């Protein structure tokens, strides 16, 4: 079938973490989201280590790594952070 992907397609995940300690947000991308969250929560990333523990509050998936990198970079901009806050409006206001 044209355009169909097999289940072995590699996905790249853009993710947003929230610190349960400080409520800080962290945006990144990875091929293995579960493992990456474990790495963050083990303190293996210097920029997230002081704010342990973390939880995933948002993620997107891409088939192309360049697309994922570009999206991660955008979500780290002022416009991207605003978009994310609008996208997760109910999540942030229900706290």
| Helix content percent band | 25-40%
| Rg, Cα atoms, Å | 14 Å
Strand order of the largest sheet: 2-1-3
Q: What does the average pLDDT come to? A: 93
Largest sheet: 3 strands, antiparallel
Straight-line N-to-C gap = 45 Å
**How much of the residues is beta strand, in percent?**
15-25%
Treating each run of at least 4 consecutive H or I residues as one helix, how many helices? Answer: 4
Low-confidence stretches: none
Looking at the structure, what is the overall shape? globular
Just give the CATH class. Alpha Beta
What is the compact description of this entry?
The protein has 95 residues and is α+β, with helices and mostly antiparallel strands.
SSE map:
Layout: E1 12-19, E2 25-30, H1 33-41, E3 54-62, H2 65-75, H3 78-87, H4 89-93
What does this protein structure show overall?
The chain is of the alpha+beta class. It has a single domain (12-93), classed as GIY-YIG endonuclease (3-Layer(aba) Sandwich). Helices cover 37% and strands 24% of the residues. It has four helices and three strands. The chain has helices at residues 33-41, 65-75, 78-87, 89-93; strands spanning 12-19, 25-30, 54-62. The chain has a three-stranded antiparallel beta sheet. The termini are far apart.
